[in-house]
Amino acid sequence: MLDSKTIEIVQSTVPVLKEHSKQIGKRFYELLFEKAPDLYNMFNQTNQKRGIQQEALGYAVYAAGEHITNLEAIKPVIERISQKHRAIGVKAEQYPVVGETLLQAVKDVLGDTASDEIIEAWGKAYGYIANAFIELEEALYEETESQPGGWEGYQSFYIDKKVEESDNVTSFYLKAKNEKEIASYKAGQYLTLAANVPGEKYTHIRHYSLSEAPGKDYYRISVKREDGHDGAPAGIVSNYLHKQVQTGDTLKFSAPAGDFVLDRSELPVVLISGGIGITPLLSMLNTIVENQPTRKVTFLHASINGKTHAFKEHVAQLNRNNENVTSFICYSSPNEGDRLGTDFDKEGYIDLELLQSVVPSKEAVFYFCGSIPFMEAILKALHRWDIPNERIHYEVFSPVAILGEK
């Protein structure tokens, strides 16, 4: 445990670190990649360029400092980061260089404000927090590798088939190249791809939600092609997968990971997805249909229009064939074809009014996934409806771990 003096210094200096968190995050990665350039292969370089990774680091640092006497309060953050660390292969021996670099970044950004006493206190705090991560991650490695079909590091899978799900979403059916049993997973989890893209200097790491129910002899990921717009660059890996990777090609993945998983209760479920956020929720929907045929599930999906709407017919078929499934569709900009048919239920967005009109009872478990603005809006709506936090679950594709608390 940390001594009272260290705790006092850390908690009193959290506001200063919070104020400068973005600069500290930026400086940290500059220093880290100078010391250990190989680590470029472990980080999402697109998030680096956009500053998202730096923001996530800054958030994690001051959140840990604020809760240094009760890490249980930020357990969701710790678990989420630990799952990502296990997925990309972070090991205990890498923590010391990260700690040294972080303290140097704090000193570089804060200058004389960061006295030796403050740096020493944060060094002790980092060691304490790092041990919590290492302990949890070691358990995750052991659990992952010892399970039936589990493996260490990255394993080769070949593309059994590619299926276009919409104008910009394609599914990839993956089978183990060694033809051995593959590890099962929980509905909502993801695979982590280590992509060696032609012309790119470093390996690109991406997490892709599994979009099928577990228990099959294959994995399925469904990837949105990011074409780039509003100043955002085109997705390096998504375009590589869509345009270059063909049936029969081989890709490397680490074993399934993630803390956004379907519960095992019999409470009604509400699944709310926006765009490509449908992928983990589709795995949950398929799982409920297969394993809990009496569990009520309401599936709400928001898309731009019918052309961008992935898995539309599949969900409609589940709705038709299963009495426990009810689905609703919102299009923000329906096209002429959409308007001629009856293929969507509302023009606009998923809001509290819609939720209250289509969800049979608020005594349900709510899962949602989509863009950050989409999820911020859904979270606000659920809070306005007084849904307790213990029945609210979401997946954040961005490294920023907690909505509304950045």
Automatic annotation (TrEMBL):
<protein>
    <recommendedName>
        <fullName>Flavohemoprotein</fullName>
        <ecNumber>1.14.12.17</ecNumber>
    </recommendedName>
</protein>
<dbReference type="InterPro" id="IPR017927">
    <property type="entry name" value="FAD-bd_FR_type"/>
</dbReference>
<dbReference type="Pfam" id="PF00970">
    <property type="entry name" value="FAD_binding_6"/>
</dbReference>
<dbReference type="InterPro" id="IPR023950">
    <property type="entry name" value="Hmp"/>
</dbReference>
<feature type="site" description="Influences the redox potential of the prosthetic heme and FAD groups">
    <location>
        <position position="84"/>
    </location>
</feature>
<dbReference type="InterPro" id="IPR012292">
    <property type="entry name" value="Globin/Proto"/>
</dbReference>
<keyword id="KW-0349">Heme</keyword>
<dbReference type="GO" id="GO:0046210">
    <property type="term" value="P:nitric oxide catabolic process"/>
</dbReference>
<dbReference type="Pfam" id="PF00042">
    <property type="entry name" value="Globin"/>
</dbReference>
<dbReference type="GO" id="GO:0071500">
    <property type="term" value="P:cellular response to nitrosative stress"/>
</dbReference>
<comment type="similarity">
    <text>Belongs to the globin family. Two-domain flavohemoproteins subfamily.</text>
</comment>
<keyword id="KW-0479">Metal-binding</keyword>
<dbReference type="InterPro" id="IPR000971">
    <property type="entry name" value="Globin"/>
</dbReference>
<dbReference type="InterPro" id="IPR001433">
    <property type="entry name" value="OxRdtase_FAD/NAD-bd"/>
</dbReference>
<keyword id="KW-0561">Oxygen transport</keyword>
<keyword id="KW-0274">FAD</keyword>
<keyword id="KW-0521">NADP</keyword>
<keyword id="KW-0520">NAD</keyword>
<keyword id="KW-0560">Oxidoreductase</keyword>
<feature type="domain" description="Globin">
    <location>
        <begin position="1"/>
        <end position="138"/>
    </location>
</feature>
<dbReference type="GO" id="GO:0009636">
    <property type="term" value="P:response to toxic substance"/>
</dbReference>
<keyword id="KW-0813">Transport</keyword>
<dbReference type="InterPro" id="IPR008333">
    <property type="entry name" value="Cbr1-like_FAD-bd_dom"/>
</dbReference>
<dbReference type="GO" id="GO:0071949">
    <property type="term" value="F:FAD binding"/>
</dbReference>
<dbReference type="GO" id="GO:0019825">
    <property type="term" value="F:oxygen binding"/>
</dbReference>
<comment type="similarity">
    <text>In the C-terminal section; belongs to the flavoprotein pyridine nucleotide cytochrome reductase family.</text>
</comment>
<dbReference type="GO" id="GO:0046872">
    <property type="term" value="F:metal ion binding"/>
</dbReference>
<feature type="site" description="Involved in heme-bound ligand stabilization and O-O bond activation">
    <location>
        <position position="29"/>
    </location>
</feature>
<dbReference type="InterPro" id="IPR017938">
    <property type="entry name" value="Riboflavin_synthase-like_b-brl"/>
</dbReference>
<feature type="region of interest" description="Reductase">
    <location>
        <begin position="149"/>
        <end position="406"/>
    </location>
</feature>
<dbReference type="GO" id="GO:0020037">
    <property type="term" value="F:heme binding"/>
</dbReference>
<dbReference type="Pfam" id="PF00175">
    <property type="entry name" value="NAD_binding_1"/>
</dbReference>
<dbReference type="GO" id="GO:0005344">
    <property type="term" value="F:oxygen carrier activity"/>
</dbReference>
<feature type="binding site">
    <location>
        <begin position="275"/>
        <end position="280"/>
    </location>
    <ligand>
        <name>NADP(+)</name>
    </ligand>
</feature>
<dbReference type="GO" id="GO:0008941">
    <property type="term" value="F:nitric oxide dioxygenase NAD(P)H activity"/>
</dbReference>
<feature type="active site" description="Charge relay system">
    <location>
        <position position="137"/>
    </location>
</feature>
<keyword id="KW-0285">Flavoprotein</keyword>
<keyword id="KW-0216">Detoxification</keyword>
<feature type="binding site" description="proximal binding residue">
    <location>
        <position position="85"/>
    </location>
    <ligand>
        <name>heme b</name>
    </ligand>
</feature>
<dbReference type="InterPro" id="IPR039261">
    <property type="entry name" value="FNR_nucleotide-bd"/>
</dbReference>
<dbReference type="InterPro" id="IPR009050">
    <property type="entry name" value="Globin-like_sf"/>
</dbReference>
<comment type="function">
    <text>Is involved in NO detoxification in an aerobic process, termed nitric oxide dioxygenase (NOD) reaction that utilizes O(2) and NAD(P)H to convert NO to nitrate, which protects the bacterium from various noxious nitrogen compounds. Therefore, plays a central role in the inducible response to nitrosative stress.</text>
</comment>
